[in-house]
């Protein structure tokens, strides 16, 4: 792997981490809602955001494989 | 309470983190860039700064000089997404700076803000409250829930029978809740009023009806319009007041004391007594006609000793309530719950609750252990149960005495039969009774 490829990979990893962080934070919020610490509506909103972050993350990973795959083909 | 500045460029992350930090009891402000963070630092003083390492306009480390220049330097925790950055940060900022690695958990935020690293124990499974009120998963309680659910859908009057402390008022409230009626739930205790006042309490009075009746008063029947009226200790109601109650139950109208106008009433009456049905029938504390009006649907609430498997659930709930009110962290040991389960609880759930609270008050508030008294005693225990569970700490003499008296009671005082049952000679029995001072010399 060239250093150029590695920095490209790092960018993808960084982008994939971002939704994972969000998911983990939103999950904490859902836990709090189930405990009755915050309003239950917040849990629904948080779960929607979790789903959309999961999609984001999946999207980034797809992009990464196709991008890096292109390089191999070259 | 701390004032916290959270610097991170991911708005969704900061929003949730803020909710959590606020829930932990702190005030929190947010910045998305170094620029914004600098602005806040000029305007406010902070106790703690949570700082993302990578920001759009530079590294969070750039803020360090400014923070050092502040009159009161806040504590700093760096947030990073890369575990490898940890060592870089350590080299850069020295060992005094905390860091959090994303993804962050709530406990980690809690730990850096409180400067304590305590690993939280997993939360206990929630104990279900049936009808939001009743605790217990034993077969007898499940039967009770079924009865409550059935009767609540009708408008039938319910009579609750059960020993003192089994939770008759809680069951009454559960029936009201399950009925989803629009009216209120009104509870009153028929044993708490003098003969003169009970009429006014139940049916209300008009102004000037008697000395001291300075205004008009609605009785509980009127107050419970469209809802549920709970009459506790119904058997303590003076017998000569009962015809008045009967009239209200039959005609569904009340006449206020001193009033002339009949007022229509419409409520379910849930009554309760700690006497058994046989006792009610024999002792004539309740007129027969009233009984049949009130006990359209009688429900007997089981005593705690008949649902011992529920004791741990109840004990856990009571200690959780106590913890919530007092900010303590008490937890039961399994062996302690077994001890509680072994006891008969003649005072039922009420006695258990008071016992748990007393034990919690006696325990060290800094620790999570609960100190149980060596023995569980109640002044009512002997009266209520003739065969209490054997318990360590009692003397043989004590238990022997109780056994002798229990046997004598069973055989109506016939000492020859009692001695036979006990497997001792009549002479020995007499000697024992003499020793207890229970027999005169010549007997």
Automatic annotation (TrEMBL), chain B:
<dbReference type="InterPro" id="IPR011006">
    <property type="entry name" value="CheY-like_superfamily"/>
</dbReference>
<dbReference type="InterPro" id="IPR009057">
    <property type="entry name" value="Homeodomain-like_sf"/>
</dbReference>
<dbReference type="InterPro" id="IPR002078">
    <property type="entry name" value="Sigma_54_int"/>
</dbReference>
<feature type="domain" description="Response regulatory">
    <location>
        <begin position="3"/>
        <end position="117"/>
    </location>
</feature>
<dbReference type="InterPro" id="IPR025943">
    <property type="entry name" value="Sigma_54_int_dom_ATP-bd_2"/>
</dbReference>
<dbReference type="Pfam" id="PF00072">
    <property type="entry name" value="Response_reg"/>
</dbReference>
<feature type="domain" description="Sigma-54 factor interaction">
    <location>
        <begin position="134"/>
        <end position="361"/>
    </location>
</feature>
<keyword id="KW-0067">ATP-binding</keyword>
<dbReference type="Pfam" id="PF02954">
    <property type="entry name" value="HTH_8"/>
</dbReference>
<dbReference type="Pfam" id="PF00158">
    <property type="entry name" value="Sigma54_activat"/>
</dbReference>
<keyword id="KW-0238">DNA-binding</keyword>
<dbReference type="InterPro" id="IPR027417">
    <property type="entry name" value="P-loop_NTPase"/>
</dbReference>
<dbReference type="InterPro" id="IPR058031">
    <property type="entry name" value="AAA_lid_NorR"/>
</dbReference>
<feature type="modified residue" description="4-aspartylphosphate">
    <location>
        <position position="52"/>
    </location>
</feature>
<protein>
    <submittedName>
        <fullName>Sigma-54-dependent Fis family transcriptional regulator</fullName>
    </submittedName>
</protein>
<keyword id="KW-0804">Transcription</keyword>
<dbReference type="Pfam" id="PF25601">
    <property type="entry name" value="AAA_lid_14"/>
</dbReference>
<dbReference type="InterPro" id="IPR001789">
    <property type="entry name" value="Sig_transdc_resp-reg_receiver"/>
</dbReference>
<keyword id="KW-0805">Transcription regulation</keyword>
<keyword id="KW-0547">Nucleotide-binding</keyword>
<keyword id="KW-0597">Phosphoprotein</keyword>
<dbReference type="InterPro" id="IPR002197">
    <property type="entry name" value="HTH_Fis"/>
</dbReference>
<dbReference type="InterPro" id="IPR025944">
    <property type="entry name" value="Sigma_54_int_dom_CS"/>
</dbReference>
<dbReference type="InterPro" id="IPR025662">
    <property type="entry name" value="Sigma_54_int_dom_ATP-bd_1"/>
</dbReference>
<dbReference type="InterPro" id="IPR003593">
    <property type="entry name" value="AAA+_ATPase"/>
</dbReference>
């Amino acid at each position: 792997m060239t250093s150029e490829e590695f920095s490209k990979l790092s960018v993808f990893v960084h982008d994939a981490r971002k939704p994972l962080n969000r998911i983990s934070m939103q999950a904490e919020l859902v836990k709090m809602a189930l405990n009755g610490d915050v309003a239950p509506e917040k849990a629904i909103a948080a779960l929607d955001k979790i789903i959309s972050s999961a999609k984001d993350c999946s999207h980034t990973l797809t992009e990464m494989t196709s991008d890096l795959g292109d390089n191999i083909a070259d | 309470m701390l004032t916290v500045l959270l610097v991170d460029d991911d708005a969704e992350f900061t929003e949730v983190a803020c909710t959590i930090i606020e829930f932990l009891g702190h005030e929190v402000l947010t910045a998305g860039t170094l620029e914004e963070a600098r602005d806040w630092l000029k305007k406010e003083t902070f106790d703690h700064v949570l700082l993302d390492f990578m920001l759009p306009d530079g590294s969070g480390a750039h803020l360090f000089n400014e923070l050092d220049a502040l009159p009161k330097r806040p504590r700093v925790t760096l947030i990073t997404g890369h575990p490898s950055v940890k060592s870089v940060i350590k080299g850069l900022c020295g060992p005094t700076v905390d860091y959090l690695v994303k993804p962050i958990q709530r406990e980690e935020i809690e730990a850096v803000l409180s400067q304590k690293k305590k690993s939280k124990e997993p939360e206990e499974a929630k104990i279900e409250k049936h009808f939001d009120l009743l605790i217990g998963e034993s077969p007898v309680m499940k039967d009770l829930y079924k009865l409550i659910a059935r009767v609540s859908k009708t408008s039938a009057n319910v009579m609750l029978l059960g020993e003192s402390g089994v939770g008759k008022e809680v069951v009454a409230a559960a029936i009201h809740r399950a009925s989803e009626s629009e009216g209120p739930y009104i509870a009153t205790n028929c044993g708490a009023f003098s003969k003169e006042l009970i009429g006014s309490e139940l049916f209300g009075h008009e102004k000037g009806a008697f000395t001291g009746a300075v205004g008009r008063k609605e009785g509980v029947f009127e107050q419970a319009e469209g809802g549920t009226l709970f009459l506790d200790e119904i058997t303590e109601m003076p017998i000569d007041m009962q015809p008045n109650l009967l009239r209200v139950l039959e005609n569904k109208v009340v006449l206020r004391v001193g009033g002339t106008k009949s007022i229509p009433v419409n409520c379910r009456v849930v009554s309760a007594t700690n006497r058994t049905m046989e006792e009610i029938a024999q002792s004539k504390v309740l007129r027969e006609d009233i009984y049949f009006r009130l006990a359209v649907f009688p429900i007997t609430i089981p005593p705690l000793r008949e649902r011992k498997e529920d004791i741990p659930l109840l004990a856990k709930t009571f200690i959780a309530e106590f913890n919530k009110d007092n900010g303590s962290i008490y937890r039961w040991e399994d062996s302690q719950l077994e001890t509680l389960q072994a006891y008969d609880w003649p005072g039922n759930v009420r006695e258990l609750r008071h016992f748990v609270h007393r034990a919690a008050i006696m325990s060290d508030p800094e620790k999570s252990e609960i100190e149980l008294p060596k023995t569980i005693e109640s002044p009512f225990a002997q009266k209520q149960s003739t065969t209490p569970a054997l318990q360590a700490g009692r003397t043989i003499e004590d238990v022997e005495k109780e056994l002798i008296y229990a046997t004598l009671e069973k055989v109506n005082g016939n000492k020859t039969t009692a001695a036979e049952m006990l497997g001792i000679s009549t002479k020995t029995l007499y000697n024992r009774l003499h020793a207890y001072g229970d027999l005169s010399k010549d007997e």
